[in-house]
Structure formats: C-alpha cells, structure tokens
Amino acid sequence: MIFAGPLTYGGASPCGESVPLTTIASVMSKSVHQVRGLPVVASCPRPGGRAGRSAALGLLAAVAASPDPAAAQGTIPLNEITVAGAPAARPPAGVGAPADASATSGGGGGPSGVVGYSARVSPAATKTNTPLLETPQSVSVITREQLNDRNVQTLNEAIDYTPGVSANVFGFDPRFDSFYIRGFNVTNVGIYRDGLRQPSSPFAIPRVEPYGLDAITILRGPAGGLYGLGSPGGIVDVTSKRPTATPFGEVWLQRGKYDRYQGAFDLGGPVENTDGQLSYRMTGLVRQGNDFLPGGIDDRVYIAPAFTWKPSADTTFTVLAEYLNNTVPGNASFYSDFTDPRFQKTKLFSGDPAFQNFNTEQYRVGYAFEHKFSPDIVFRQNFRYYHVDADLRYTAISPGGLSADLRTAARDTGRIANILDTFTVDNQLEVRGATGPVRHTLLTGIDYTYATYSQRSGFGLAPDLQIGGLIRPNYGAQFIPVPDLGAATRVTQSQLGTYVQDQARLGRFLLTLTGRHDGVDTTAGPVGDPSSTAEATNRAFSGRVGLNYLLTDELVPYFSIANTFAPQLGLDRLGQPFQPTRGRQIEGGVKFNVPGTSVFLNAAVFDITQTNVLAPDPVSPLTNLTAIGAVNSHGAELEAVANLGPGINVTAAYSHVDISTIRNPGNPETIGLALSGIPGNTFRMFATYAMPSWTDLYGLSFGGGVRYAGTSPANDVPDTFRNSTVTLFDLVAAYDFAKVDPRLTGVRLQVNVTNLLDRTYFNCQAGACYRGQPRQFYASLIYRW
C-alpha cells in the first residue's frame, strides 16, 4: 500500500522537486505493484517509514482506484444471536444450523448458518443466499464467536488467520487497516461494509472497529463481475451489528499492557409496545491507552446505533449509523538505512512524541431496505453516506540522516490533512424461477458510488534527534514547529455499474454467469484552478463464469474464471489516456462439508494475472509511463473450519503464494523477480476447548494459535536479501462463573496474549523494514445477559 508524500501541483514535494499534475495523474488508481513491483519513480522516505515518504506519485496511487417480529421474547446468550435478529437455535453438537434466506440474502446481511467458527451461507460472493459449498470461488467467514475468542483489536488482527491473507507486511502500524490478498493490495479498493464499497483516500481511510461487527467475509480473487473496480486479490466485506428480535445485553471491561483501558457495551432487542415492528441495537466503545512506540497513544471513541422497522413479514428497513474518533501515532516506523545495500534494521524509533499524532474522525449513516413481492421476487436497496476527516502529523528521521558517530539524526516533519466524502447506493432485484428442468436464481442490479476528497499538506524540518549512541534518544525534549499547509487539491470519482447474474441449476450442475458494465469518471487537480485539472473516463466490462458439480450433497468441486479492473488517470508519451489495469483469475478447487458435522474443508489452486500495469516507457523511462507491465500470482490454499461441540472450535489455513513481475520492458531486470514482503508460505491455526459440563473444571476454556510466515524478498531489486521466517504464538484462557454461583451466570473472565514468546521481528518490503508488535496481553471482564 502506498501512503506517501503530498498530492501537490507545481509545489515542492517532500523530496524537494516539483511534481506536475500530469505526472500525478498518471499514477492514480494504480495497484501497489505498479509502484513497488514495477518501479516507476525514485522515492524518498514517506510518513511512517513505508518505503520512505515518496513523492506525490506514490500518494495518489492508493486513491482513485479508490463499500420475525413474532419471535419469542426470551433471553438468549449473545453469541447465539443471528444477524437477522432471530435467536439462532443451537443445533445438536456438530450439526450446522439452516440458513434463513430472508435474513441474509443480499443487502450485506452477512453470513448465516453459523455454529461456532463455521458458517454455511454468505451472500458476499453472489449477493444471493447461496451456501458457501455452492459458490464458485474461495470464501472464508470469520464469525462473531471467533472475534470474541481472539479478542481482536483491529481488522488486520481479525483476518490474520485467513488463508491467502498477508496482514503483517507493514509490521505494527496502528494508523491503517493495510493488508494483501493473494499478493495484491486491497486496502483502498477492496474493503466493503454491508455489501457496499468503502472508498478511501491515501490518509482518510475509514477505520473498522471489530467490536461493531457481526462477522467478516473474505472473497478471494477478482470480484469485478458483481462489485466493479477493485483489486485482483479479492474483497473483505464486514457486516455491521444489526438489531435483534430478542433482548440481550453485554458489557466488556478490559485492561491491557501499556496502560490500556477499554470499556464496551452492546445492547439490543425489540422496542416495547410496537408489536415487534421496531427493534434497536446500540454498540459503543471507549479506549484510552498507549502502545510500545515511544509516546505512542491509542485512544478511540465509537458509537454505532441501528434501528429496524419491519411493518410486515415481507418488508424490512434497517438504519445503520456510526461515529468514531481515533488517535494513534503519526509515525510507526523504525529507522532503517535503505541507502545501505544490506538495509540495516535498527530499533531506533523514527518518530517523536512532540509531534506525531494521527487523528481520524469519521461518521456514516445508511440503510438496508428489502421487500418481497413474492417468495420468488425480492427487491433490495442499500445506501450509505460516509465522511472521514484525517489529520496526520509526523516526525521522521531523514534518509541517511544518522550521523557517522551514531549520536545525532537529522529529521524532517510533515502534516497532511484529508477530508473524504462518499455516497454509495446499490439496487438489486432477485427473481427465482425455472425454464424446463433448469432452475434459475436471477439477480440484476445497478449501483452508484461517488467519492471526493481534498488534501492539504506541508513539510518542514525538525531539530536533530540527540541519540547518545543509540542508548537514550531525547524523544519529546525539543519543540517541533507545525509546518504550514499548502494549497488544497481535490480528487473526485464517480462510478455507475449495472450487473446481471444467473445461477442456473440442472441436476447436480450449478452454473454461475455474472456480467457487469462500469463507467468511471475521475478528475484531479488544484482547487480553484480548473485549467489544470486532469480528467479520465473509463468504460469496462467485468465478468465471472463458475461451475460447481455436487458429487454428493456435501462434496463439491468447482471451477471459475473471473476478472476485474481499475481505472488509471493520465496520459502516455503520445498523449493517449492509459487503459485500465485489468486482472483475470482462473481458480479450481473442492469444498467439503463433513456429513453430520460442522466441519468445512476447502482446497483451491489459482492463477491471477494483472495486465496494463503502469511501468516506465522504454522510449523515455525517466519521464513517461505506459500501460505495458504485468504481474502474475499463482498458488494454492487449504482451509479447515470446525465446530466440534459448544466452545470447541478449530480454524486452520495453509497458503502458498508466488507473485512476480512477468512483463516490464522499461525495467527488464525486474522480470521474474518475486515481489517483496509477501511470504511465499504461511500457516495459521487457532483452536479453543471448553471443559465439558460433567467435569469439575466446567466453566474453564482455553486455546491458542500459531502464525507462521515463510521467507520473502526484502526489496524489488535483483539479488536482495530475504526476510526471515517468523513463528508467533497466541493464547486465550477464560472462565465462566456460573459454575461457582448461578447468580453469576453470564460473568466471564478472559485473558488473551498475542506474540506469547515476545519475539522481536521485522518484515521488509520495497527496501524499508517494519517492526512487528511485541507481546501484548488483555484481561477482560465480560457480563452478558
């Protein structure tokens, strides 16, 4: 992911040179590989140390490609509440719950058939209520129970046990939810909320509070046929907590390392005297704490109200809203001398508590509407408005700024302010019927996304850091002035997409045909100067063909071809607009639900090629770009998710990803090189065990996980050194006090430890190295009723 430098026009970049708008425009909407995999510009350090603060080229690359009332009123445990609001009946041990199509079909309603860590159905892959077994792509679901057991604090942590995901490329960086799927960055174009794309700018990236989620679904591989522009790696769809038809409550008090204090609550149920037509949910969290970075703070305020109106069994209208205020360090990097061929890593923090806060204030409001004209005809409309205001202030050690005697370090400063506003609406009509022996689920839709952001930035110098031989740096001891902000620039993008999908079933064959046409218009330029505005218009068709064959009701092999695209603003050497970058995937696999259990197995192989990647023009490589580059990712994934009884869960995943540049005439020495920072092999496993009720230890549960990441190149140049393998361990232990005294039913004490052995490790990408988070522990007192 590129988070670097200012979006400027004719002004000084952090490297000191002037960046013309045409050059800025030429790299908008690129994937990360177009900057780091196929080098197109020289860069200087960037905020937070991710390959330095590059010029405006890197900054813009991350943007423009850039989301039953009559139910019984009894009380049930929170973990057994479905996203639909009806209580999820606990099936016999090992048996999956049936799916409720009215609850989860489309509309971002989230997965259903949830038992422990396993889910039977997710609408993310088809926007219909299709079982995971019958979707022609790899899909993983992270349930609320798994999120609770692991006590995840960020979206990165939440998806870290999922196959194909690289969530630790940039080490510990609390500023952003930044990760890769199958080797491709998805941060700016691949995060969805409730089925709607969540656009972002380079720094105004909506933060996701995991406590406010019912589930997370990861769809791996291109999703352009349903969702339009995006990353070849896939999408992550987070499902907001929704009102329930059964009253419940939860209070969660937490204490953690580094003076961390957190309180959270989650309340919901029907509104009295409304005959079940109105229900509500209110979720909130307050955190005050620090982190292991010198002077680093981690504060958050979050509130998310939701209301559902169900005037009849056929009509549902749910309002979803949120306010979040988040403050973290503006720089999470440690000094690494990437001018040295060995890229020396140090434990010298690059920031300074005197000037380093990054504040994000955001709010959203939207709704999910569904009406059934008949059991076979359903209309849905989903809408959301999002506003994000981000203010980044940072201090960083300059490249090569460390003195020869290791006693001082030259530094500079920056301030970047982004304001982002987005509107997104998706209209869907689902019709079920038959033509002769063929049964159809037909989905048609039209969606529209409008996103605009403005940016102002300024840069300056800070007094040298007095290090004292790398022993006691004088952090916070000197006054650091705030740089003046320059003129504002603005980027605006609108996308209109129409799509059609037919899921045709004949006997044991299920053919999924998806097609979509998009029109994307993008403008970028300085505010108040329309003559210097760059514009681009792209039209593209995306699709998917998938075939499933039900060998048995539980064993299903599948095959699919899918593609996606992302627009690229700018002109080549001949003055012609760049073609959109495109990605195509071929995937095959087999899915298996072990009969009579809640055990789900998935194996897949894939091959993804991204073309029209911007690369140096062979004729004028120093001054022009052209869409001639290509990147290929291929590999295999294995996943197992099992619920073996109440509180006994297992999730395990193995991934092999081989991603490299396959075409780059302007920089041929990169051809065949694996892209840096992406581990070739990963293995993750997490399991919990609850002591049976007939034992004296009933009420006690415990578990843990292992995260292994294999080696990878540390830079995108030939003969570079490699990142070391890393194995991390996590731990959870909990006790439910109902065993001690029935009056304490619902009281639970839980302890979580991440990086149990406190391993110090780094991951280097594009020549910059990022330190992983040390051991962290959380002690939580939870009361549910």
Automatic annotation (TrEMBL):
<keyword id="KW-0406">Ion transport</keyword>
<dbReference type="InterPro" id="IPR012910">
    <property type="entry name" value="Plug_dom"/>
</dbReference>
<feature type="domain" description="TonB-dependent receptor plug">
    <location>
        <begin position="132"/>
        <end position="235"/>
    </location>
</feature>
<keyword id="KW-0798">TonB box</keyword>
<keyword id="KW-0472">Membrane</keyword>
<keyword id="KW-0410">Iron transport</keyword>
<feature type="domain" description="TonB-dependent receptor-like beta-barrel">
    <location>
        <begin position="309"/>
        <end position="756"/>
    </location>
</feature>
<keyword id="KW-0998">Cell outer membrane</keyword>
<dbReference type="InterPro" id="IPR036942">
    <property type="entry name" value="Beta-barrel_TonB_sf"/>
</dbReference>
<feature type="region of interest" description="Disordered">
    <location>
        <begin position="89"/>
        <end position="109"/>
    </location>
</feature>
<keyword id="KW-1134">Transmembrane beta strand</keyword>
<keyword id="KW-0675">Receptor</keyword>
<dbReference type="InterPro" id="IPR010105">
    <property type="entry name" value="TonB_sidphr_rcpt"/>
</dbReference>
<dbReference type="Pfam" id="PF00593">
    <property type="entry name" value="TonB_dep_Rec_b-barrel"/>
</dbReference>
<dbReference type="InterPro" id="IPR000531">
    <property type="entry name" value="Beta-barrel_TonB"/>
</dbReference>
<comment type="similarity">
    <text>Belongs to the TonB-dependent receptor family.</text>
</comment>
<keyword id="KW-0732">Signal</keyword>
<dbReference type="InterPro" id="IPR037066">
    <property type="entry name" value="Plug_dom_sf"/>
</dbReference>
<keyword id="KW-0813">Transport</keyword>
<feature type="compositionally biased region" description="Low complexity">
    <location>
        <begin position="89"/>
        <end position="104"/>
    </location>
</feature>
<keyword id="KW-0408">Iron</keyword>
<protein>
    <submittedName>
        <fullName>Ferrichrome outer membrane transporter/phage receptor</fullName>
    </submittedName>
</protein>
<keyword id="KW-0812">Transmembrane</keyword>
<dbReference type="Pfam" id="PF07715">
    <property type="entry name" value="Plug"/>
</dbReference>
<dbReference type="InterPro" id="IPR039426">
    <property type="entry name" value="TonB-dep_rcpt-like"/>
</dbReference>
